[in-house]
Structures are given as structure tokens and as C-alpha cells.
Amino acid sequence: MTEREHHSLRIGPASIAFRRTEGTSPGVMFCGGFRSDMTGTKATALEAWAIEHGRAFVRFDYQGHGASSGGFTDGTIGSWAQDARTVFDQVTSGPQVIVGSSMGAWIMLLVALSRPERVVGLVGIAPAPDFTEDLIWGTLSPEQRLELLDNEVLYLPSEFGEPEPITLKLIDEARRHLLLRGRIGLTCPVRLIHGMTDMDVPWITSIRLAERFSSLDVRLSLIKDGDHRLSRDQDIALILEAVSELVVTAGR
Q1: Contact yes or no for 73/153 (Cβ under 8 A)
Q2: Residue 2 scores a pLDDT above 80
């Protein structure tokens, strides 16, 4: 299968694109970040690792992202989490280690909370739970908040290209899914990796997250010169090491 080729499944009128690598269990599922897609460096590196080790692996695009249908501004945390749950239910089988990058770590947690019996490990890369509230709404000026409330969309500058459209629907709906305000009742092993030069998600977010888990098997790796993307060779190696540890431990 070439990079342009993928399978798809239906969620109502929507088409969700995914790529599946057959292999042994526990499998690995990757959840991408805000406005990213399944062709990114971390997703493809994980797939290459899975192929090399004969491990089952799935990557996919949320609605409004990559090769999936739908408009980005129609999406919410809840709808993207439902996309991930549908892929988890229909495309994966048996126990799974879920890997989530940035917003994908928030999605990863929501999936794990709804399917705890099948999730045997979590790897969060620059995890950004509650980012809509803490890192967007909480940092807007009074003028920006008024613009968002009046127009129901606000365009924020992005160092990665075109301005990012932030909808009022995204902010409001996300409040149903906030996780850092209480206990996260997951008991599986958790590995968090965060760069200390991350300009998008402060590394203190990972410390806050680690404190919230019911699990006692939680480890946080801080990379002093690591940025938000964590896509350098040495970053990828650390991610693969964490994933490998969890799938081997869970498979015993």
C-alpha cells in the first residue's frame, strides 16, 4: 500500500481514512494532533517499527483532517474522540497500546477511559489535554474572546503556516471532556514524553497529567532541548523505546 492509499470506514455520512498493519498482539494505535494527519513523521516511524517487529498497528485521520472527509471547523474534541473510538472498535482487535501526540494524547485518554478493558498501555507525546480551555480560551485577550463570541470563529497565527481557525463550538464542546480538573481513573502503565522548549504546550502540563492518573506506573521523560514536534531521530528513538517496553510487558 502506497502512502496515498488507505482504507476507510463510515461514521454516518463521514468517511474516516485509516491504514492498518497486520501483526501480533498487543497492537498499537496512533492518534495524531490538532490539524495534523497520519502521514506525519511519528506516525510513519511507528508504522515502520511495527512492520519490522511484526506488530499490529493502526493510524488514521480524524474528520476534517488528512484523507478523511468533512470540514476541520465542523470538528470538536467529542467528535474526534468518537472517530478514534470507532477506529479502535472496528479496525483494531485485542489489547492495544495507544500512542497520542499533542491533542491526540487527549483523544487517547478519552478512548482509554471508554475502553479500559482493552487498553494495556498509553504513550503521550507532548500531551495536550484540556488545551482548548487552558492554552486557547485561557490565554485570549478580552478583545479576542469578544470576537470569538460574536463571530463564532477566531483565526490565530500559527508558526506552521496558515492561521488556525478556532471555533466557539470547539471551545464550548470541549468543556464536556476536560480531564485535568479531576482524577483520571486509568490503571494501565503510562509513559509521557515532553520537550522542555515546547512553545505550544508547556511541559508542566505533563506533570499535571501524571499526577492525575490512578495508575502508579507512570513515568515522565523530559527532553531539555526538545520542541513540541519531537520528530528528531533521537526523539523518535525515545518514543519507540517507550512503545516497545509497553507492548513487550503487556504481551507477557
Answers
A1: yes
A2: no
